[in-house]
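PROTOCOL LOG
Step 1. Enter all chains and additional molecules of the complex.
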Amino acid sequence: MESVNAESLRKTYGREKLLAVDDVSFSVSKGEIFGLIGPDGAGKTSVFRILTTLLLPDSGTATVDGLDIIKDYERIRKRIGYMPGRFSLYTDLSVEENLDFFATVFGTTVEENYDLIRDIYIQIEPFKKRRAGKLSGGMKQKLALCCALIHKPEVLFLDEPTTGVDPVSRKEFWEMLKRLKMQGITILVSTPYMDEATLCDRIALMQRGHILSIDTPQRIINAFPDHLFAVKTGDMYGLLRALQSNKNITDSYAFGEYAHVVLPPSGISPEDVQAYLQQQGVAGIEWRKADVTIEDCFIKLLKV
Amino acid sequence: MKQFLAFVRKEFYHVLRDKKTLLILFGMPIAQILIFGFALTSEVKNSRIVIMDQSRDRGTQQIISKIEASRYFDIQQDILSPPQVEAAFKKGKIKMAVIFPRGFYEDLMHQHSARVQVIADASDPNIATTITNYISAIILEYQQDLNETLQQPYRITAETRMLYNPQQKSVHSMVPGVMALVLMLVCVMMTAISIVREKETGTMEVLLVSPLRPMMVIVAKAIPYLLLSFINIVTILVLSVALLQLPVNGSILLLLAVSTLYIITCLSLGILISIKTATQQAAMTISLMGMLLPTIMLSGFMFPVENMPVALQVVSNIVPAKWFNIIIKAVMIKGLGLGAIWKEVLILTGMTVFFLVVSLKSFKIRLA
Amino acid sequence: MAEYVIKAEKLTKKFGDFIAANAITFEVEKGEVFGFLGANGAGKTTAMRMLCGLSKPTSGKATIAGFDIYRQTEQIKKNIGYMSQKFSLYEDLTVLENIRFFGGIYGLDNQQLKSKTGQLLHELGLEQEAKKLVSEIPLGWKQKLSFSVAVLHSPAIVFLDEPTGGVDPVTRRQFWDMIYDAAHRGVTVFVTTHYMDEAEYCNRISIMVDGKIEALDTPSGLKERFNAPSIDEVFYQLARGAKRVE
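Step 2. Run joint prediction.
Step 3. Record the structure below.
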């Protein structure tokens, strides 16, 4: 069953008609974790706001839990949980008061749906008397998730929940999402971190309002058309300069401690490149075949 | 209903936890009333006065020596002609002139009544009132001295005249003004800011994506300020009665009722501003520039509306505080009933309905 | 002998009972790209403020470009550049006005300003956009522009506070190209980031946990020591044990 369905959504802003979302279509099945992956300004937040009934699209249609986002906005609002990009709880209320407030607003109580949030809430319970404004980044995020979940929504929208959060808290957050998925909640999440893409069931890679590619992470990786290698030397700066000077190499860029070298399916061979590097005076290179990541795919799509 | 109560409770937390704002909210009216109170009750010593004694008889000499003996006055000079009195006032040298007409003592002895003219510089009404009271007391004392030895009482009438400010605008007109101002500030600005703050911090986004009805959000936001303002009114009234001896001549119930109406007018204006603006800064600027200044300038609180150019008089009609000022003076000072103020009450009610309808029409169920 | 542009010795900052930065000791060489990592609330911002001369340490010593952080904060400010994700350029000024303004406050004269501005716009390929408001250009360009502005006055050190947050992977790499170029010219780069793959681009990195520097080495040295395949994993091992919540 389809939980979210978007068809040809388009949204422009202001008098200059700045294009934020252009012909975006996708659907999300019930119980799926669907990721919108892309940098700031890709249109992720606009898509989320359209689906959460906060914005009207210029054109296109969408349904959430089978309800139309324009006609049935009031019914949709009862069934979704939404965590906006920036921290949107009351900083002068305590953890407990925030949670109680949002429970009541949605016509429920904390006790009624405690099962759903227990795993997350016990981590912040020791601080339940503390004002939300005094929590750490990771804690705020957990509280915000609790508040978005407290009415047991059918669909959960998380707009960049891990931005500005350190890697440890990010890992914990994704583990929480996996547990929520088990409860049958559909989750739409957006992130600028490419490495989080593989944690989603399916992803849409976005840039400048467009969807570049949409599929499971594995299939997107499998569709990478070129050969990918990782190279390392002591002097990364020199290595990159040398690689970029050879026009037969499709692409090359830093990737962690390695440089990734993209070679066309036919043409220049790895041996040719290694010889070229030696000729350029880059010594002591370590060369190996690299596993394609979503980030490599994204870079490829951006450069097409 | 439960949602509504939860919202109101949350609003009270916001208000009560913001200690600085709370201090301003309650401190401001108290401070204002105290300032006016002290300006009025402080003792005035060594005021410079002149005496024009056209009679120069036993009676006037005795009164003058009593005035001389008092620590309140400092007699500058004896003068003989009215133009000299006027000149002295104009130079700002003296606060008061006491004029004894010819044949003062003779009139008193034969007709058992005489007159003294007291002219005061009322450009500072508080001082003028105080010192004319002192003079009256001195004359009364002299009168009593005389009456002790005589069977038929003598009466001296002190005719006082206030120069420059004949209406004696003072604390009596200030209190309604302060009430109008304080309520305007608390209700309009605080309500506007508290709603806009939710837009700015992003919590409005979360509230919109919830089953809450927009109007409920707004009404719940206004409730703490309604209560707070009501407490403020009672504080102002109690202080002005207890400290300033200001009479409440009309019905207290009516007074509280019309004040509540004015509060609601202000709240709905605050709500309207909050809906039309996107940042706290904008809401604050509009409340201050658009509301506070007209309230001070055009409500008749500082300057009488009747003396303004016609254009400003017309503009003053859209200032809610103007109508409230009229109402409150009528009820509190003149002791009039609803019959005398129904027109103004109707105008305020109309304004409130207008603000609320426009607010409802412009409230967005989505982001811009 | 190596030339150190940052030398910190037992640098400590307390806020009441709370020790935000606890006896931090490290050195950074000239022309080095130094990654400064840590979980939220570990004390990175506090440490960085002290090094920029914005906040007085409670105890300890440090010199920045040879200047003492207690007494010579004015000289320090003249010799460093600073860029953060949150604030770097005025959105309501044009590209050109921003460059002129920041060049001006660092004391470049008109002649220098003119030549540097032209060169900078050319290198960034922003000639067409010079008269556009900063709010109108894409985020990636903004980040590159603000980096260029931060190094306009040829500082000894440039501090970058999460410079690449939310930027697409291609722009992110172009940004790092600029960092390498600057380092090649002898500018020392001090950078914080939440992207662990970027940490690998640094010559050396330090990882702060609960106010202390728990690890400091080259990326490969750290991976070896913690027997981890990536810096991400090293970070996870270290920061998981953090007690502190902001």
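Step 4. Note key features.
The domain at 2-221 of chain A is CATH 3.40.50.300 (Rossmann fold).
Chain A has a mean pLDDT of 92.
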